[in-house]
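Q: I have 407 residues here and want to know how they pack in 3D. Can you give me a structure?
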Amino acid sequence: MTAGRQPQAPLSVLAPVHPQVSGAAQFNTAMVTALGDLGPVQAISWRRLYPPLIHQRGTHDPVSRPTRLPEAEEILDWADPRTWREALRAVAAAGARAMILPWVHPVMAPPYRYLLRHAPPNAQRVVICHNVEPHEPVPLGSLLTRAVLRHSDLFVIHASQQRAELAQLGVADRPILDAFHPRFAAADLSVLPTSVEIAAERTRQSNPGLSLLAFGAIRPYKGIDLALEAMARVPPNLRARLTVAGVCWDGGEELRAHAATLGIEDRFELRDGFVSNEEAALLFSAADAAILPYRSATQSGVVQLSFAYGVPVIATAVGGLVEAIADGENGILCPPDDVEALACAIARLAVERARLVEGVRRGGENTSFLRYGELLRDALDALPARASRSRHRTRAMHLAATEEALT
């Protein structure tokens, strides 16, 4: 540090990080690491992220060994407001210039609303919108979301459609940073598999002509049933095989039965359960493409995880996936809910894969987590102080009320 120069105030990130396995923990871990490369960061994680009755499966990852991990203190507990106050005291003691929280689901409304409303007065309140509204309907979801987001000073969005969603909630009257979901760095997530290990995995899969991977928690909006139906229409000579790896909330019996009905059970594997970073690295490295037949989406970490391993993506043209995937360059896009189009996309992969892999390799320079951190810090530098912002909003509200009274 230059003599006489004041130390830089840290950014406080209140978010689940590794070893948490939910709440965009992998994203948060990479983001905190990148922000730490740019300046001081305080990371406050969760002891318990969700209400006990909501999340029945394991919440922590005891297996994965990321090669880069930020330091983080586990303070927050969804069910214990005392920990919310403890976290805010830690933010205030650090003299943080900003408090950053990721927004994923309305179930987080109680702690998030408290944290944002009671943030230290000098800390800008930043909400990273992974989702503005949830993929599946939630009772009072919009009401809860607005009750939280109205206390933000800056939104960070990963897809252009989210700007309209914020406007619909009536909270788009504050700065919005149009960002992107960054590309993960595979070498930061785990030790990479060797060529021998990748070849062994392909052999275990019976050496398919095309190995497709659907990765992540399995929920109805992700359209795995459509992928199964498309597999049944793919020409047999392509020898396509589908691996689905992630937690099935219903145990996966419906998908297995569907595959059996379609007669593709010998070309389909369901790995129901938590997938470690090391296992994910092997599955992606052995795949010819990731497949995302989503019915709806904002952005997807799976796309950027696939790109991290040099693997192209087949996806439906929904939400922010259109912005993340360049059709014919680093992946293939097809219409949603169209089984025939999805089958044709798989067939296209057999012809275009080498070019798509090269397109994935060329991309990524401008979508790194480091670049994301730079944009976030620049956006914070451009914000007025919270006190002046609050006065401006209050004055605007009084003017609006006066005008309404006079009309």
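Q: Anything worth noting?
A: The chain has two domains: 11-182+369-397, 190-358. DSSP finds 15 helices and 13 strands in the chain.
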